Amino acid sequence: MVWLPRVPCVAAVILLLTVLSPPVALVRDSRPWFLEYSTSECHFYNGTQRVRLLERYFYNLEENLRFDSDVGEFRAVTELGRPDAEN
């Protein structure tokens, strides 16, 4: 075994670690994050004589689809909700 002086040995280890380590960009968590959620609301008028149901669907804090029981069908709020409203 060949023994190298301390400074060149440390330099060789640093060089080896630099070459063999993956780039910082590959280590970073690059998974896309998104938020999808829905809300359901019941509104009661005159006690329980009249009930209105609202279901709202959101993607990344933007409402894209809505069901209103007064209308009786799903309606697209944005283009993203159009395919779901048409089905």
TrEMBL record:
MHC class II beta chain N-terminal domain segment(s): 40-87
Signal peptide residues on this chain, from the entry's feature table: 1-26
Signal among keywords: yes
Domain of life of the source: Eukaryota
Keyword Iron-sulfur annotated: no
Membrane-topology descriptor: Single-pass type I membrane protein
Alphabetized UniProt keyword annotations: Adaptive immunity, Glycoprotein, Immunity, Membrane, MHC II, Signal, Transmembrane, Transmembrane helix
Pfam family, one: MHC_II_beta
Location within or outside the cell: Membrane
GO cellular component: MHC class II protein complex
Protein name: mRNA for I-E (H-2S) chain
Predominant subcellular localization, coarse grouping: membrane
One biological process term in Gene Ontology: antigen processing and presentation of peptide or polysaccharide antigen via MHC class II
